[in-house]
Amino acid sequence: MSPTGFPKPVLAIEGLTVSFDGFKAVNDLNLYLDRNEVRVVIGPNGAGKTTVLDLICGKTRATSGSIQFEGRELTRMREYDIVRAGVGRKFQNPSIYENLTVFENLEMSYPKGRKVFGALFFKRSAEVVERVGQVAGEIGLGEFLHQQADLLSHGQKQWLEIGMLLMQDPALLMLDEPVAGMSVSERVQTAELLKRISQGRSVLVIEHDMEFVKSIAHKVTVLHQGRVLAEGSMEAVQSNPKVVEVYLGH
Ligand SMILES: Nc1ncnc2c1ncn2[C@@H]1O[C@H](COP(=O)(O)OP(=O)(O)O)[C@@H](O)[C@H]1O
Ligand SMILES: [Mg+2]
């Protein structure tokens, strides 16, 4: 709690700027995310959406500004330490191990057995098995634990990668275009999945599919040229003339 008695945001981004050879891909950005909030970031291609996630997870270094996560300054931390601090990030292409089973992929992501070699010789403690079972259930793969990952559908592979992030129980989960390439029914199932896994954590999603955005977003932030163009409920953002002009009208 802050001195004023209001709960502090989990994530507070202030004045965040990154300049690539003089081009400001993210330009003096402010963004605040609450606990248990599902926020969706939308905006035209090149708006800086992916770059914001790169900055939060430490893949890209900020030129200026601050990113406070649960009171810690992420702009000065290494990528690995940011993961350990509780930030999980899913990239657009899944990075699962195709020749391992669902169980093995999840097991490997358990904080104590993270490395491939570690996992091979890792004694499967009851604790890990229990956690794998729990996460597999959450991502709808409870029936597929012993299936090799390359036999999963595109959607199931995406869910498996979300599961691998969940194994570390992140307080903030970030997903870049999670339903790209998914069938309609997989999109609906992904929305249900995100609602389930956002209990007790904050989720930051980049997405273009407006039906999907509408079904999961508590609040929507519209990025344009590295800045916040509009922010609010889906309805407010959709009827904002500036947003229609630069994005939704196309
Ligand atoms: N590492 C980089 N070096 C140079 N330019 C980059 C780099 N990363 C992103 N950009 C540029 O920054 C802008 C924003 O990119 P990006 O964040 O990927 O947009 P979005 O995800 O909203 O489509 C684009 O013009 C892109 O070309
Ligand atoms: Mg992008």
UniProtKB/TrEMBL annotation:
Record's protein name: High-affinity branched-chain amino acid transport ATP-binding protein LivF
UniProt xrefs under PROSITE patterns: ABC_TRANSPORTER_2
Looking up PANTHER family in the UniProt record yields: CONSERVED COMPONENT OF ABC TRANSPORTER FOR NATURAL AMINO ACIDS-RELATED, HIGH-AFFINITY BRANCHED-CHAIN AMINO ACID TRANSPORT ATP-BINDING PROTEIN
Signal peptide: which range, if any? none
Among Pfam families, the record links this protein to:
ABC_tran, BCA_ABC_TP_C
Coiled coil start-end: none
InterPro entries tied to this protein: ABC_AA/LPS_Transport, ABC_transporter-like_ATP-bd, ABC_transptr_urea_ATP-bd_UrtD, BCA_ABC_TP_C, P-loop_NTPase
What are its GO cellular component terms?
A: plasma membrane
Q: Provide the ABC transporter domain boundaries.
A: 11-250
Named from the GO MF annotations, one term is: ATP hydrolysis activity
UniProt KW keywords: ATP-binding, Nucleotide-binding, Transport
